[in-house]
Specification:
The structure holds two protein chains of two kinds. Chain A is an alpha+beta fold. Chain A is built from ten helices and eleven strands. Chain A has two domains: 84-176, Beta Barrel (Butyryl-CoA Dehydrogenase, subunit A, domain 2), CATH 2.40.110; 179-332, Up-down Bundle (Butyryl-CoA Dehydrogenase, subunit A, domain 3). Chain B contains twelve helices and eight strands. Classes of the chains: A alpha+beta, B alpha+beta. At the A-B interface, helix 6, strand 11, helix 7, helix 8 and helix 10 of A face helix 2, helix 4, helix 7, helix 8 and helix 9 of B.
């Protein structure tokens, strides 16, 4: 039979899970660890029953709430469980986004990112590109990495991300990552795409409400065609990205999953760029200030877009692969 | 020598994956299909004749009969079978017949609202013996479709048509026209409309091709001068025209979008193979086109599955339509920019084809509901934004 997308959770169950997650993020204080909160919800069972929907809902709500946590680490580490087995508590060190690669260079001191403080972990896992282009996975004892005392500032001063530095010993033990690392990156990109679209969902709600409420020339600005069309375009970009992401989840575990996830991440990044450009304009002057919340969505979406490769850089990657005839069209067949 | 007509294989109608494998095998090894690879046609008329021959070729093997009901000459199966055929033809570098595009727009509405007409004419259509065109727009009713005036009056068991239609794609070569006409008062707007199938050789029907900027005759205008059409040619009842049109638009916005996405993917590969040296930013342009097409495919695949499951696709289909327009304009602009000398001055048939297609790609934001109309639908019916004032 055809491998049509399996139904998984029905719509009512999805809504119920989303509502519980929303409540979880509302109740959560500061950078409180979300693992015990998820355990209270019986998350392990939810995850086991329909992993694609569970992860998508978790990261969508994570994005909607502008939450900051190391939840993404778990998604990535789960894919590495076979090649890097351990019962130690672990975190992931991500390449610093401007480097534009998904692996860190190991021939110089490493500068990477963690998605939170690393006070409660035993090992920091990172992927290092080795001479010749292969990727090796390294689990460094937490004591060997240096984590910045303060979260990273910059455009999104609220991300909670930290700078991590370390020097890899020449004889450091690295496990050949092989395809597992590609799969881990794919899983991370799917989760990030869901999170970006979650940020977008709330931002679109905010800007739609503003367009309906704000009156100029005696009528709501949302009745002007120029404003309506901007928001419609944003919606189209988001809906398209959502379909690409759903497709990427359907292909999880298949050969085409890496290519499908790459494009899902690009399209989510593209959608946030389109939406945020229009949202800031429609909000007018207030949107440029801290009096309105929209700036927080603009900033978070941009930071998430950059993680594991921004949409502009990855579009270049797709273009190069396509030029070389390495595209995977099987990722976009009728299922 | 006459070739035999393939029989239906129920196991393919029942299983889309099995159908895909079978089509892939056929397309990959049938030497006759070479005729429709890298094709360039000097005129729209030749294009349609050649593609009618491709319809006949596909019909002979039974391949374009899957996805259509047995009562209307099909082999059974659903929309996904049709979608798979277009994908496999395009993936193998073979044209998708233009007739299939028109059929995706018109066929489902004929089958739903006039099954007897479907049973009578669809077999010949699938065999490449005839094709149909869509006549909705009028000189005074483009985006404002509900303002159309072309009139049909009941006279015994006939309707008498008088008035004009315009922008009918492939009207000049079509055997039949599916026309949206006014049977009520002009003030009744969309309530006073009726859908009718008109043979193009009916006395009183005159069809004149309109040359596009490229010189190609894709479009036409149609004049009705008291043309008599049997009442049995109605799609649905008198006054039901708007409902038929809305049903039809689901397919126009979803199936047509999927079909066009597969063709765009083939053309992007052809562009890649034609480019010598990429200018700065050229790699990213190709990447952008690729991801735009991938997005359209992911989106419309989902819509096609919904149609196949019998769902009604509402205002959300406008998303597919807008994504399609993005693909069409982006791809052809990329061809123009990445093959600058060739596009502007090339004398060969390939250069001429890119130019023809570039002009036709501009129609993607105009026909079947303009880009502005689509955005308005989303603003009103998906985002629930305040209504736009028309005065």
């Amino acid at each position: 039979m055809s491998t049509a997308p399996t139904p998984g959770f029905d719509a009512a169950t999805r809504d119920e899970i989303a509502a519980s997650l929303r409540e979880l993020f509302e109740k959560r204080t500061g950078a409180q660890d979300i693992a015990p909160l998820l355990a209270e919800l019986g998350w392990a069972d939810v995850l086991a029953e329909d992993p694609a929907t569970a992860v998508t809902l978790l990261f969508t709500e994570h994005g909607r709430a502008l939450a900051s946590s190391r939840a993404l680490d778990d998604v990535i580490l789960a894919e590495l469980a076979d090649v890097l087995p351990s019962d130690r508590r672990r975190a992931v060190i991500y390449p610093h986004p401007p480097e534009g690669s998904v692996a860190l260079r190991c021939d110089e001191p490493i500068v990477g990112l963690s998605l939170g403080p690393l006070t409660d972990i035993d090992d920091a896992v990172l992927a290092a590109s080795r001479p010749g282009g292969s990727v090796g996975l390294v689990a460094l004892p937490a004591a060997d990495v240096c984590v910045s005392a303060e979260p990273l500032g910059g455009f999104d001063f609220d991300s909670g991300w930290r700078i991590v530095t370390a020097v890899l010993a020449k004889d450091v033990e690295a496990v050949c990552a092989g395809h597992a690392w590609d799969r881990a990156v794919a899983a991370g990109r799917r989760a990030l795409a869901a999170e970006i679209l979650g940020v977008c969902d709330t931002a679109l709600d905010l800007v739609s409400a503003h367009a309906a409420a704000r009156v100029q020339f005696g009528r709501p600005i949302g009745s002007f065609q120029a404003v309506r069309h901007r928001l419609s375009e944003a919606y189209v970009a988001m809906a398209g990205a959502r379909s690409v992401l759903d497709n990427a989840y359907t292909l999880a575990g298949c050969d085409a999953e890496v290519w499908a996830a790459l494009i899902a991440k690009i399209r989510a990044g593209h959608a946030q760029a389109v939406l945020m450009r229009h949202a800031v304009q429609v909000f007018g002057a207030i949107g440029l200030t801290r009096e309105s919340d929209i700036h927080r969505y603009v900033e978070r979406a941009a930071a998430l877009d950059a993680l594991l490769g921004g949409h502009q850089a990855l579009t270049e990657v797709v273009g190069s692969a396509f030029l070389d005839g390495d595209e995977v069209d099987a990722a976009f067949e009728m299922l | 020598m006459t070739s035999s007509i393939a029989a239906a294989r129920p196991e393919l109608a029942a299983d889309v994956s099995a159908y895909r494998r079978a089509v892939r095998g056929y397309v990959g090894q049938q030497p006759a299909l070479q005729r429709w690879r890298n094709s360039c046609y000097p005129s729209t008329e030749t294009h349609m004749t050649e593609h009618a021959a491709l319809m006949a070729q596909l019909f002979e093997g039974g391949w374009n009969r899957y996805g259509w009901p047995v009562e209307a000459g099909g082999f059974g199966g659903d929309e996904r079978h049709r979608a798979v055929l277009y994908d496999e033809l395009s993936a193998a570098g073979v044209d998708v017949p233009e007739q299939q595009m028109l059929l995706e727009t018109l066929g489902p509405a004929v089958l739903r609202f006039a099954p007897a007409l479907g049973a009578q004419f669809l077999p010949g259509y699938l065999a490449g013996e005839e094709w149909w065109a869509q006549s909705f727009s009028e000189p005074e009713a483009g985006s404002d479709l509900a303002g159309l005036r072309c009139r049909a009056r009941r006279q015994g068991d006939h309707y008498v048509l008088s008035g004009q239609k315009i922008w009918t794609s492939h009207g000049a070569t079509a055997r039949r026209l599916i026309c949206l006409v006014r049977t009520g008062s002009l003030e009744s707007r969309h309530r006073g409309l009726t859908m009718v199938m008109v043979d193009s050789d009916t006395p009183g029907v005159q069809i004149r091709p309109i040359a596009m900027a490229s010189g190609q005759n894709e479009l036409s205008e149609v004049f009705f001068d008291d043309a008599e059409v049997p009442a049995s040619r109605l799609l649905g009842d008198e006054g039901q025209g708007w409902q038929v049109a809305m049903f039809l638009l689901q397919f126009e916005r979803a199936m047509y979008a999927w079909l066009s996405a597969t063709v765009a993917a083939r053309k992007l590969r052809e562009l890649r193979d034609a480019v010598d040296e990429l200018p700065d930013g050229g790699v990213r342009r190709l990447g952008q086109c690729y991801t735009d097409i991938a997005t359209l495919k992911a989106r419309s695949a989902n819509t096609v599955r919904r149609l196949a499951a019998g769902d009604t696709v509402g205002p959300e289909a406008s998303v597919d339509k807008i994504l399609l327009a993005t693909v069409e304009t982006g791809l052809h602009d990329a061809a123009r920019d990445l093959l600058p000398g060739e596009f502007l001055f090339g004398e060969g048939p390939l250069a001429a084809r890119w130019r023809d297609d570039w002009w036709y790609s501009r129609a993607s934001t105009v026909m079947g509901g303009s880009a502005e109309v689509q955005r308005g639908i989303i603003a009103d019916r998906v985002l629930n934004l305040p209504t736009e004032r028309t005065t």
